[in-house]
Amino acid sequence: MNKPKMATEKGVPSNSKVLMLLGQLERMNGEAMMRDVETARQVTAKIFHLIQTQEEQFTSILRWIEKWWNPRGSEPSFHPQLWCTLRPFVMKWRFSADPPEKSGKEVMSKGSSGMEVILASLENTRDVQTTLNILYILSELLTVGRGRRVSVFVSKGGTGILFQILISASKELPPSEELMLQLHSLLAKVGPKDRKFGVKARLSGALNATVNVTKQNLQNTKLLLPCLQVLRVYSTNSVNAISLGKNGVVELMFKIVAPYSKKNTTLLKVALDALGALLKSKTNARRAVDGGHVHVLLALYQDWHHNDARHRHMLIRKGLLVCLRNITNIKLGRKAFIDTDGMRILYNSSTECLPVRTLDPLVNTSSLIMRKCFPKNRLPLPTIKSAFHYQLPHVPAAGPVAQLYSQPPGVDDVVDESDDNEETDADTENDTENEEDDKDQGAANDDIETDLNKLHPKNNPGRPFEELRVYERFFLELSEDFQGYNFEPSKSSSTTSSSFSSTRSTRPIIVPTAQALSPKHVPIMSCQEDCSLTKGEHTVHSPSVPTTAPLTPLELDTILLTKDRDRKGEAHAALSSLTRPPAQPQMIEQELAHLLECVSLEAEDTPNKGEEVGRGGKQEGSPVNATRHIQSPLLLGGIATRRVGGGGGGGGSNWGSDCGSEGAEDEAGEGAVLEVPDTALLLPLHDPDLYVEMVKGTRSVPQYAEVAYPDYFGHIAPTFKEPLQERVYGVQRSKIFQDIERLIHPNDIVDKVVYDLDIPSCPVIEDNGESLKFNSQFESGNLRKAVQIRKYEYDLVLNSDINSNHYHQWFYFEVSGMRVGTNYRFNIINSEKSNSQFNYGMQVLMYSVQDAISGRPRWVRTGTDICYYKNHFARSSIAAGGQKGKSYYTMTFSTSFSHKDDVCYFAYHYPYTYSTLKMHLSKLEALRTPQIYLRQDVLCQTLGGNSCPLLTITAMPESNSNDYICQFRNRPLIFLSARVHPGETNASWVMKGTLEFLMGTSPLAASLREAYIFKIVPMLNPDGVVNGNHRCSLSGEDLNRQWQNPNPELHPTIYHTKSLLQYLAHIQRAPLVFCDYHGHSRKKNVFMYGCSVKETVWQSNISATSSDLQEDLGYRALPKILSQIAPAFSMASCSFVVERSKESTARVVVWREIGVQRSYTMESTLCGCDQGKYKGLQIGTRELEEMGAQFCVALLRLKRLTGMRNHQHLLDLESDIIGTQSKVVSSSPTTYVMEEDEPSFLEAIDYSAESNDEDAEPENEHGGGVQENPNHLDQLSDGETNHRD
């Protein structure tokens, strides 16, 4: 049926004619229209003719009708005469427009809007030609009217009317082709704008009507195209997709898209889109697999790839890939894809597309499909449990260790290829496999605490004071009267003062029946009977750095270490000849101290028995010129020695022929010598020989017998800047393609194990010198296995935390035997987090022994082509917290080496070992002046038998008068802790900066000591640090999730630290500030997490009264001060929301149970900064230590703020320091609020977590993060878009 053609009546303005015709059509609605069919045809035909033929009039009419559809709009801005003509009609319809839910009678009543008039006419007419005329009108209006007009059409019920006409027309035999064409064309325009389009179609029966029309017109492309467009919209509804699949639409689509033909490409594109939407349903995907259509799709893709030489039909090729992607979401689809050689087909075609940048969407989608279909493998390990096992004193039945070891052998890492919980990729070109873990904001808010009873601090220690009284021994400063102490600053008093500062406990506390510790040797002043000294004689010796008084001896863990710098005798024995019988620790300690006395620190040649010592020289351009000589190797037992720079054997690291059983004596006899840079001036807290001594007192589960060279030499922060690495376009894609080549070209893969901790007798596998040599058998080392994949490529597997089967992130290992200038690729293949800062500019750290010998002992950022992405190694549901279908992630980097016969070390972050801490504490004691009150106690022994140090730092009173003693005792307490998570080494570097500042001689440091008493636990998890864990202690648990109910046997450091705080709460001396130092792997900058009732309520939907929200806002003061004085600190990244998943962390427990309002976690980035002075730079130890010092300065400023007696002084000082306007909200002198810092929303999340933070996210104490959107990343590569930390 043809569209009507009519001439315009002469003498009548066309716009007036339209108004007249619309008025006439309105009067005809109802029975009159059915009686006078011919008139209805003429009226609708005239309206359509005017719209179609007169462009100027059409524009005016559209504007006029827009006013109908926008009753509250302003008057149109066209010609005044035209407006005068239209005004009566417009005003009538404008002010009488009714809502969409009017009844049918009201729609036809006088005064309806123009659209309702047209729709009412369409619904009531039974004449096909009249219906067509109205459809023509609507088609013209909706085509030009853009999306807003379609939305109005939908709101007026137009979609339902079209479906009614479609059902009625389909019942006629044969149905009108022109009517079906116009109906489906309109539905294709309306469908995407109607959110309930699919539901309406299914309920009205329109699905089958469209399917039948499609089947009957497969050769009629004119009608087939709009039908396919409507089917495409239908299929976006999952229920409709299944229903259409049952009706054979999947098979129908394959008839349309195959075989290959360049005819009707528009039709083919729409058909592929519809097919792709249908195949999102797993049921339809199975139908496609059962019908053998995977092969058809691959063949079609090959045809289009080879014949589309000019790339004009990229959308068709993308449509075929989308179909394949959706089919391979199911296991049957992946198997069919592999069986039909899909990996090779897509790999070859993608390789050919790589040179053409515009084809990146094809390459990335192909990459996603191939990665998904890559056969899932288990890790190349006998078990995913840690290679080391520690027997706990008792295993709680409900604990993670009991669950871990209750599994039958081989069950813990079974490959799970289940379809459950698999990703459902969004239909965009930014598809990433990390999207499976994204959490929307609503899900994030579900974790916010909503119980107001839990949000108000209780200040309830929870234990009777009689149990806590034993901890009084750790707070001698609160009762010390200093009677008999000589306050005269003379040399004669230095010995006494140093002895006082060295007071410590000599054995762990046993609760609840702990006995008073008996003093050793001479009692110190009035420390009472439960204060004791370290074993050994106190010796006064000359300081190595300028100070006002002689220094105290170096001591730690009851070992007195004295070095005679004037003595140049011979050493009694080589370090490698020493052994350590567990039953004779005191004898060994004495032997070590005696040996250390004989080691000269002079920068001269020191001959050893029967050994030749080389000569040291200066290195130009190096920060260190003086050198000392040591004998290689750095070994603690009878293990075979190694040489550096000694030549022979074709490698930088030479081993005995049978891992030390033979040939050890020969290599040791060769007398390989290292020239050690003398770093005493640049590293006053570092002493290589003292470090070795400290290592000998450190207990590890693997019983490490080596010392890593970086820990021995020390680290001097480089003076040059290390910017965040820019991402090279396509780097991740190229790495993924290299991984895919392993399956396509298996003969090119070496697959040779070169290092394996699961072979404890001989982890280093000997070869002919063609492979690198690896080692991680030293304190804090973590590398379980190294497999050579290609000549210069290695897969590396990290060890799980002891008594655990996951937490893989921290690494620290040694590499030797490298070739100079060769580019090596290293792949850490069992990372667990869904994203990493390695995708956003972070680099690994490398330490070169040759550089250190040359006077540059430092860790430097290194690595190119760094990226982090999901791999083909499957995580069992047991290791993934019950989630199925999870995979590990690969962190890959490439690097080359500059020196022959070098030994290099790689680390996740700057290592800071437990022995390093002990060395630093000993050196800090040596730096103490008579004005500093320093006491080091042993808080407890860990599970592994290591001591947990507790420091007390403040200023000595000026005299023992009552006023000074009273001021001394009543100083507010600051409680600091760090390193509860071993992999967060940056926390220790921040703590080092804090300790050095506190022990410094600056006026600020002196003022700070006079203002506060500092109680510091610098390392809460020594066992985890020693054994190379990332997250847990030897109990296999995250200690920062044990604060609510710590076990004294399994979590001794947490138990006793909490007991210290409970004791302080009982005696009404709760700390002013509690801060736990952490590291954050997914966010940049340094920031804080605190606790606030008000800010938590803001982020939840709970109702609260004004009394519930009253709180002292002083908790924001310290982070605000830090944001003003510390360049790395970001106030915008701070959060003060309390979450349910964090209720057992230190921050929340200390706030809730101890009543410390200023209870914080301070997070330091592992990557770098994106704001302030260090924007665009990776963070280093200098910046971390600076942060620790700035934290101290902020505490001093906080003291000045809280010490003000009246509010005006408080406001003036705050305005002066912080530069913001504050207001007092209560009568408390410490209560103020910085208005611009009141957060209006919870900070955005940058990365997603696979489950809750406790089980599956080896991360810091808080899970939030800021969004990352680096412009330099590949826009379309998997895993290279922003995600949640």
UniProtKB/TrEMBL annotation:
GO terms for cellular component: cytosol; mitochondrion; nucleus. Its main location: cytoplasm. Residues 910-1199 form the Peptidase M14 domain. Keywords: Carboxypeptidase, Cytoplasm, Hydrolase, Metal-binding, Metalloprotease, Mitochondrion, Nucleus, Protease, Zinc. It catalyses: (L-glutamyl)(n+1)-gamma-L-glutamyl-L-glutamyl-[protein] + H2O = (L-glutamyl)(n)-gamma-L-glutamyl-L-glutamyl-[protein] + L-glutamate; C-terminal L-alpha-aminoacyl-L-glutamyl-L-glutamyl-[tubulin] + H2O = C-terminal L-alpha-aminoacyl-L-glutamyl-[tubulin] + L-glutamate. Residues 413-439 have a biased composition (Acidic residues). SUPFAM superfamilies: ARM repeat, Zn-dependent exopeptidases. Residues 606-618 have a biased composition (Basic and acidic residues). Residues 490-506 have a biased composition (Low complexity). One of its GO terms (molecular function) is zinc ion binding. Belongs to the peptidase M14 family. This is Cytosolic carboxypeptidase 1. The lineage of its organism: Eukaryota, Metazoa, Chordata, Craniata, Vertebrata.
